[in-house]
Design brief:
single chain, 884 residues, mainly beta, Jelly Rolls, Immunoglobulin-like, TIM Barrel, 5 domains, eight-stranded mixed sheet, eight-stranded parallel barrel, 13 helices, 39% strand, globular, binds (2S,3S,4S,5R)-3,4,5-trihydroxy-6-oxo-oxane-2-carboxylic acid
Length: 884
């Protein structure tokens, strides 16, 4: 909806009334928004008549792709809002708290700057008291800018740096005497647990109190610790006299909790610490509540992670903060839902990657018992020569710790992800500068927090990280390992880790990333790396999980990633999305999610993992058969599974490494599968209904009922087109009575089975990213009738181009001059396409569909013949649909 400028200052005004002590409310509703690089407030108002009306959280890249260089808008944007402040605010302080804004944010109140914040992921607060007009309307204006800035990390990373006021914004009012809100996003109270044992726990508390009034104040700081049921456990009062304008640091020591209820993933028990300020008459004037979890832990180089005296294998995920069509702007419910899904998966840890997330995430981790690592977004490289870059990194480290200091779920502070993998040459002086910055960050993290561990996630180039000191410096070494995805062999994972452990026997280590891409539309009976099939992702995680579980020295492992996420330059099966999630951007669970559940869940579980593969197609193997056998994967933590098809047992299978595979004889139509495990006298089961389209053998066995065939040409995977409810089958060679190509070979991009180029004019990338090269002809021995024969083409990138980028983080748009192909296509002798030159007539990587209607008589079947005029012909997909 767009509103005229006239409405900007007269609409959606909220009136805020003073409350005496602290009040907190969101300022999320009724903002006017306009993208503009103009930095002058008055000038921007003259620029445009219409302003879009938005509510927060708002991300201005939720649906865009408009910038040539970055693919999405990176620049300035303005938000306006009007609030009326009641005159009762005479003796109150007023603040605006931003949970984050990416990445530079300046706040103006009635046209005057109230403050500027740098960094897109940490929280910040501005005081606006002196800029407000009491008893009147006030105009709040915010400029947010997500332009690339060489002084602000991250400079580069495999995720989109989306802009906007994408988290909640709050208006907070306080008494003149209040806990300090201007301390780097913190709430002004810091809690520590100097000792925790099974017998006793001690608690220490630091607070900063400010007197913004004109008179000296005698106050009492009163703290109480209550248990999860609200019962008082212990209290302390401290009398303080605070002069006007003064900031006072208090410390309350010696709280003691006998027989503490310990915090752990299985029992995330939370106490509450409530800290109050009371005036000399005993009236409450400010109050802050914090969660308190009592636990002790360490990371051991051989035994792994130890919590409350017992070893605990940490298995969980990395998470980014995206949702489809919303970009960065998720509701708190959506954030929390992700942590609930992690918990339901059985995961006990979360790497909050690669930057601090919404406060709702750690609140959920505290409550649900998820052990978190949290980091600042220094990714891939640093700006070595900039003091501003350095100080922005250090500020972010301070903001990270101060905001989240009190969360019992945070165990590790991390920084610097994969600093040496960006294909840039590294000289000793580069390594030295990197080391210097790392030392500064590590020491600031330890200065801010003496109790938690530090970690750096490295990758691949062992010697480089060693020489830069990034292995020795932090207390935990993280490794991001993608053997079997970017690297060729899965088993190189164990090899790398065992070698590392031998070289660094005293270094605690975690696998900070490992993962493989998968798109639920892509399914394969012969999975390969980079085919983006669910089956390859399953095989990858099956291998890694087993190897990780078998190695006690690996303290923890975080799958990359929990949820698919936007990464603008990337072209996976879904362009601009990194498809390595165990869950899609719409939160559809992929098969591998259930593998984790089978490994991690303590209660009995069985899952037909591929139940999402609910539309299948296939051929009967012979004239006598009226079924087609295809595998169905089941994950379970039980020993034996029995599978039923339409109520009839297909037999029992022993579960090996949490998995059993059944060859299921699917019949045409609806197939009900039930996977059943008996546990004593109890039964658990999972159910799936698979719609199967069976082609007879031969295809014309029942001429009256032949429907259609869709082929994903030159491909080892089938592709399900959700919009048209149609499955494009794995390609096959022709045999009499059936269908297929008569010759040719599959397109390959180097060692990869599909192009990773974005294909324009379609949303069905996986269909166009494979290709049969020089097919000779395709034959379909269909019964007589009238058919639509559709042919789908796209000129793909050459193999040489694909080799260029290790991680394929950048789509390579270079035109391959070597490709020259011109060809003809004849359908049953009819000259359907002549001199087809895809590149010249349509362009590279463009979807080009054609359709031809044909009558088939005298059992001639359909023959589609390709003949070369220059180069070799290609075909990406084809379908034969009977219309009469
Ligand atoms: C990595 C990076 C992460 C990428 C991931 C990938 O090593 O740390 O940011 O998204 O690999 O998918 O390539």
């Amino acid at each position: 909806m767009r509103l005229s400028l006239f409405l900007i200052f007269s609409f959606f005004s909220v009136t805020v009334f003073a409350q005496g002590n602290r009040s907190i409310q969101t300022l999320n509703a009724g903002w006017k928004f306009h993208k503009s690089n103009t930095s002058e407030l008055q000038a921007v108002l003259r620029e445009k008549e219409d302003w879009e009306q938005v509510n927060l959280p708002h991300c201005f890249n939720a649906e865009d792709g408009e910038d040539e260089k970055y693919g999405y808008y990176r620049g300035g944007a303005w938000y306006f809002k009007e609030i009326s402040i009641d005159s009762s605010y005479q003796n109150q302080r007023v603040f605006m708290y931003f949970e984050a804004a990416n990445q530079v944010c300046e706040l103006f109140v009635n046209g005057v700057s109230a403050g500027k914040h740098i960094g897109g992921y940490t929280s910040f607060c501005f005081e606006i008291t002196s800029l407000l007009k009491l008893g009147a309307k006030n105009v709040i204006t915010v400029r947010v800018d997500n332009s690339h800035n060489e002084n602000i990390p991250p400079l580069d990373a495999d995720f989109s740096f989306m802009g906007g006021l994408y988290r909640d914004v709050y208006l907070i009012t306080t008494n003149n005497v209040h806990f300090d809100l201007l301390n780097n996003g913190s709430n002004g109270v810091f809690i520590e647990t100097p000792t925790v044992t099974e017998q006793t726990a001690t608690v220490r508390l630091r607070a900063t109190i400010k007197n913004d009034g004109k008179a000296k104040q005698k106050i009492l700081q009163y703290t109480r610790i209550t248990d999860a049921g609200g019962k008082m456990i212990t209290t302390k009062s401290t009398a303080v006299t605070i002069l006007p304008g003064q900031i006072y640091q208090t410390e309350q020591n010696g709280f003691s909790i006998p027989n503490p209820h310990l915090w752990s993933p299985d029992s995330p028990y939370l106490y509450t610490v409530t800290t109050e300020i009371r005036d000399s008459k005993g009236h409450l004037i400010d109050q802050i509540s914090n969660p308190l979890g009592l636990r002790w832990y360490t990371f051991d180089a051989n035994k792994g992670f130890i919590l409350n005296g017992k070893p605990l294998k940490l298995i969980g995920v990395n998470r980014h903060q995206y949702y489809s069509h919303q970009g960065f702007a998720l509701s708190n419910e959506q954030h929390v839902h992700d942590i609930e899904l992690l918990k339901q998966m059985g995961g006990n840890c979360l790497r909050i990657a690669h930057y601090p997330h919404d406060p709702a995430i750690l609140e959920a981790c505290d409550r649900l018992g998820i052990i978190a690592t949290e980091e600042i977004p220094i990714v891939n490289y640093i700006n070595e020569n900039s003091n501003d870059f350095r100080s922005n990194c250090l500020n972010m480290a301070v903001e990270l710790v101060r905001r989240d200091y009190n969360h019992p779920s945070v165990f590790v502070w991390a920084y610097m992800n994969e600093m040496l993998n960006n294909n840039k040459p590294k000289k000793p002086e580069n390594l030295r500068r990197l080391n210097k910055l790392a030392i500064s960050i590590d020491s600031i993290l330890h200065k801010e927090d003496k109790n938690r561990f530090t970690m750096i996630p490295n990758a691949e180039w062992f010697e480089g990280y060693r020489d830069a000191g990034l292995i020795d410096l932090p207390q935990i070494c993280g490794w991001n390992i993608y053997e079997g995805w970017y690297g060729e062999k899965l088993s190189d994972f164990e090899q790398f880790m065992d070698t590392f452990h031998k070289k660094y026997p005293n270094k605690p280590v975690m696998i900070t990333e490992y993962g493989a891409g998968a798109d639920p539309r892509v399914r394969s009976f012969a999975p390969e790396r980079f085919d983006f099939s669910m089956e390859y992702q399953n095989a990858y995680h099956e291998h890694y999980l087993k190897a990780i579980m078998e190695r006690p020295y690996i303290a923890g492992a975080f799958a990359w990633a929990f949820v698919d996420f936007f990464a603008e330059p990337r072209v996976d099966a879904t362009p601009h999305v990194n498809n390595k999630g165990l869950i899609t951007l719409d939160r559809e669970l992929k098969d591998s999610y259930f593998l984790y559940q089978a490994y991690l869940q303590k209660s009995p579980m069985v899952s037909i993992a591929s139940k999402g593969w609910e539309q299948r197609e296939g051929s009967a193997a012979s004239m006598e058969e009226d079924f087609c056998k295809q595998p169905v994967t089941i994950y379970s933590n039980q020993q034996e599974i029995e599978l039923f098809l339409q109520g009839k047992s297909l037999g029992k299978k022993t579960v090996v490494d949490n998995k059993a595979v059944f060859e299921v004889p699917f019949a045409n139509g609806s197939n009900l599968l039930e996977a059943v495990c008996k546990i004593g006298s109890n039964v658990i089961k999972d159910v799936a209904t698979i719609q199967f389209r069976l082609w007879d053998f031969p295809l014309n066995k029942h001429p009256e009922s032949f429907p259609s065939i869709h082929v994903n040409a030159g491909s080892n995977y089938s592709y399900y087109d959700k919009k048209n409810h149609c499955t494009w089958m794995v390609d096959q060679p022709y045999s009499r009575g059936s269908w297929g190509y008569t010759s040719g070979k599959r397109y390959r991009a180097g060692s990869r089975p599909a192009s990773q180029r974005e294909i324009s004019c379609t949303a069905d990338e996986p269909l166009y990213q494979t290709q049969q090269i020089d097919p000779g002809s395709y034959r379909f021995d269909v019964p007589d009738g009238t058919y639509e024969v559709s042919l789908y083409f796209a000129e793909l990138l050459s193999e040489a181009q694909m080799q260029k980028s290790l991680y394929n983080l950048t789509a390579d748009a270079t035109v391959d001059k070597a490709v020259k192909r011109i060809f003809n296509v004849d359908i049953n002798g009819y000259p359907f396409l002549r001199n087809l030159n895809l590149k010249e007539q349509y362009g590279e990587a463009v979807a080009v569909p054609f359709k031809y209607i044909i009558d088939i008589r005298d059992s001639e079947g359909i023959e589609i013949k390709f003949s070369a005029l220059a180069g070799v012909p290609v075909i990406n997909a084809l379908s034969v649909v009977r219309i009469k």
